[in-house]
Amino acid sequence: LLFAGRNVMRLQALLGDPAGRLFGVDPTRDPYPEYERVRRRGVLVKSRMGLHLTASHALSTSLLRDPGFGVLAPNALSPVDSSAHVGGRRLVNPVEESFLVLNPPEHTRMRRLVAPWFTPRGLRAQTATVERVVEDYLDEVAGRPTFDLVRDFAGRVPIQVIADLLGVPNADHTAFARWARALVNAIDGVRDLGEMRALHQGLREFQEFLDDLVEHRRREPGPDDVVSALVANEDLSRDDLIATTELLLVAGFETTVNLIGNAVLAVLGHPEVRERLLDDPSYAEAVVEETLRLDPPVQYAVRVPFATTEVAGTRVPGGTPIMMLIGGANRDPGVFADPHRFTPGRPEAREHLSFSSGIHYCLGAGLARMEAAAALRGLFRRFPDLRAAGPVVRRPSRAIRGPARFPVTNGVKK
Ligand code: HEM
């Protein structure tokens, strides 16, 4: 735990001071003016703590695709010490032991195992489930004149979709959602050893749950879920299996919640967009794409050069983190016309880096797009007059951007 505590401090030290004010300010504040300040300072900007930052679209893209750069070494910044044991069980770090932070060749091997669920064919097979999940949660809020868009809708759809993808039996969905939420909240907000212990405890319980699920699927494989397929693969260790399952949850849950939240915020802020969406529900896809660009749920990615190298005229020693400000790159005027404007359907829409680029390009991008579009279509079809019913509270996170609390009124007169 103490070792893990030091890691938290390193994490905070690293995030505490990029480019002076950038992350030293209230994390719920609009970060986009800060990214513009980084852009004005240069293509690659060095903070006092030695962290390099870029808001350049061209540089971010080339670094993300450069085989001379990799993801940070596992554990370097993690709030979970992978040698930690709780109750005699080794904790598998859900992020740091997954392929999100592996470099090739291990990355390639692990990513391949789950890729089939995310092909266009795999996604088509999931569309009906996603639409059903959206309608189920809309049914639940339909009787209430006001509800919280995040707690009661956006926060529930993705977790249900992932539970189905992983093959969690229906009877366990409530427990699964509870662990998933505890895990994701803790990872976002570990500030001291008390929270660290809570995270470790939650992780242990969640892993027990997954171990049980694995046993269940060994005895009774489902027809097409991820866990049943991974269990059948004899080359995969228990820890790899747990890490991959947890990655799908951690990577696909909160990100999608925030995409739906940000997209609804954008629609409420642009009456002409709402009008068009009501006329043509297929417009939801363009709205989701432009939300991804202008207000991305994941605000940055980090890469390190394997060896000392020159980047935009600066000598960068091997192993030095470079932070690519996705939210800044997505407003690079060299790529996006009138970059601060919300313009669904703009021709260069898909140039954004919200799903990263290169070998770690988000595996779930298609699922996220499909889910968010289904959520928007369903929501505005059901509640065409949806309105904010109080102040929106932003998530207190620098890495993930979206509303934490978002009271709405469904506009239906009783
Ligand atoms: C990777 C964003 C939804 C699974 C990533 C990365 C980003 C990202 C930026 C790359 C990080 C890096 O380059 O360092 C998002 C956003 C989402 C979303 C904004 C929703 C709006 C999902 C969903 C799933 C998923 C729904 C699956 C259920 C993954 C996986 C990786 C990943 C497995 C690791 C890929 C690799 O390392 O090869 N995501 N994601 N994501 N995402 Fe997503």
From TrEMBL:
Signal sequence residues: none
Keyword Oxidoreductase: yes
InterPro entries assigned: Cyt_P450, Cyt_P450_B, Cyt_P450_CS, Cyt_P450_sf
Gene3D superfamilies in the cross-refs: Cytochrome P450
Assigned keywords, A-Z: Heme, Iron, Metal-binding, Monooxygenase, Oxidoreductase
Similarity-based family: Belongs to the cytochrome P450 family.
Name of the protein: Cytochrome P450
